[in-house]
């Protein structure tokens, strides 16, 4: 049901089911559609408390109806992710749309989140279906296997899925404090088995200047 | 057709003697041959009256006339460029999105209030188009700028198309448009879905939509 039209527009054929999408990301539709605001972090009172505490306030809308709906977000590149029961970890600002069969939630990321400048929490998507994530420039998908761990610049990290452990790596030496650092003081290290999505652009992070 | 796409952000125009082109002032990147660029004080075609009309309508984007013989490269601000070929029908587009168009096209200004009365004026304000829009009519090619890529959505009488006003670029054909609102109590209490206003286009024709909610 999710189709890419070019690399920057997502076309979704809606047939009565509900698609969740980032607030205000609809650019056009034909047929009959209704838009309703939802909130991230899970449903009900618990979800509300989670949102307040975590600051991971993804404003989502639910799109229902019959027809085709086109989504786009500030001309950023769109990547489709197929989920078969596994979990996708993605920054809420990079999540564009999810299928009706997927659930979204919030998890704690620890130091990694802080180094990305996105806060300490991240959005999880799980279930069976398709999700669309955005990236600044076309994202590359890097495979991580037990023999080959991967280190990623926190500013270029977009999302990951699979059975991965992440740890925080720093290459801070006395040179960094003297302002002579190589500009790559922090990395996120992924170990295990899974996929990591990396964008060819770096967000402004705390670690970016060091 | 006088225009040829070099890549998604640049076009090449062939100028031959006796055929004029109009382009946004300052959008020339390079040229070959003997080509002259004259600033067009009137901001387009028609006489002084049309110039005054455009001034009043705030649709007077500075244009220049391109004449001579040779080839000219056009591009502006790194925006994506979409070529649209008109065969007798009318293109409705905002003046600041026009990169270049052939002199065979007739340029005009349309009052949005004349299409849909008061709601037409409200629509212009909401979509940031202002009260007026530019029309191009006849046979020829137009290069239109947009942020991000452009895609076409065909409009048929059975299937009207709704477009986010901020992502709307241009449309042509026999199309009626009106502002449809999906305002509910949720929007009043600040819990709207961010899609409260949409342009509803019905009839038969094509609408061009950009992959971004940013204006130029």
TrEMBL record, chain A:
Pfam families: AIM24. It comes from the Bacteria. This is AIM24 family protein.
TrEMBL record, chain B:
Signal peptide: none annotated. Gene3D superfamilies: Mitochondrial biogenesis AIM24. It comes from the Bacteria. This is AIM24 family protein. It comes from Streptomyces longwoodensis.
